[in-house]
């Protein structure tokens, strides 16, 4: 498994913002992700009223789906456009508030559901700002962060975990020599070393 060709690849925040501006969002799933529905029991583990984290959330429809079930959802995303589209497409009212700990960041807080979406770099977030989480839905997040930032990303996720939290992770399998990413290829051996 030669992933050397991808290890140095860097996608800037600007490039992600442009994807949203231009509508190059093939990674967005209108119907929600079948794997979340399939493994929902694993995520919830018989528990209700969980705090669930969506790293690099975009406008994931599953955020509303889980909030409708009575869970608290927190997402983080650099594209304000993506977050505003989420609220607009689900007809959800929200208010904006600054995040004092993070310069230039804002939190879009749904006023009819328990959904709080932070507009900032994920690396600016911490458990002192967002709290800790019982469940994680990492679909297109680990595989989207720059390969050089993976360890930093996973270390952050670990600091956001409650004791008995569940982490659902979706990765993609393909020949990394034929596709430059994102999504990036993360071999299973690397997943094991990252998450230990």
Which regions are unreliable across 5 or more consecutive residues at pLDDT < 50? Answer: none
Please trace the helix and strand order, writing H or E for each element.
HHHHEHEHEEEHEHEH
- Per CATH, the architecture is 3-Layer(aba) Sandwich
In order across it, which strands form the biggest sheet? Answer: 3-4-5-2-1-6-7
Mean pLDDT: 95
Helix content percent band? 25-40%
Which percent band covers the strand fraction? 15-25%
Largest sheet: 7 strands, mixed
Whole-number radius of gyration?
Answer: 16 Å
Pfam family, one: TPMT
EC number: 2.1.1.67
Subcellular location: Cytoplasm
Family: Belongs to the class I-like SAM-binding methyltransferase superfamily. TPMT family.
Structural notes for this entry:
- The structure is a single chain.
- Helix content is 32%, strand content 21%.
- The protein is α/β, with parallel strands linked by helices.
- It has a single domain (13-23, 30-195), classed as 3-Layer(aba) Sandwich (Rossmann fold).
- The chain has a 7-stranded mixed sheet, sandwiched between helices.
What is this entry, summarized?
The chain is an alpha/beta fold and 196 residues long.
């Amino acid at each position: 498994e030669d992933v050397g060709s991808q290890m140095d690849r860097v996608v800037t925040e600007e490039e992600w913002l442009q994807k949203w501006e231009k509508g190059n969002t093939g990674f967005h799933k209108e119907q929600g992700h079948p794997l979340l529905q399939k493994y929902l029991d694993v995520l919830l583990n018989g528990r209700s009223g969980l705090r669930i984290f969506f790293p690099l959330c975009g406008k994931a429809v599953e955020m509303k789906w889980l909030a409708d079930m009575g869970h608290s959802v927190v997402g983080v995303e650099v594209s304000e456009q993506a977050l505003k589209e989420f609220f607009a497409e689900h007809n959800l009212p929200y208010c904006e508030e600054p995040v004092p700990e993070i310069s230039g960041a804002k939190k879009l807080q749904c006023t009819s559901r328990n959904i709080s979406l932070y507009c900032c770099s994920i690396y600016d977030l911490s458990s002192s700002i967002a709290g800790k989480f019982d469940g994680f839905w990492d679909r297109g997040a680990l595989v989207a962060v720059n390969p050089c930032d993976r360890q930093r990303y996973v270390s952050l996720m670990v600091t956001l975990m409650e004791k008995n939290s569940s982490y659902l992770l979706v990765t993609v399998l393909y020949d990394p020599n034929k596709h430059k990413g994102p999504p990036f290829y993360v071999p299973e051996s690397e997943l094991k070393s990252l998450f230990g």
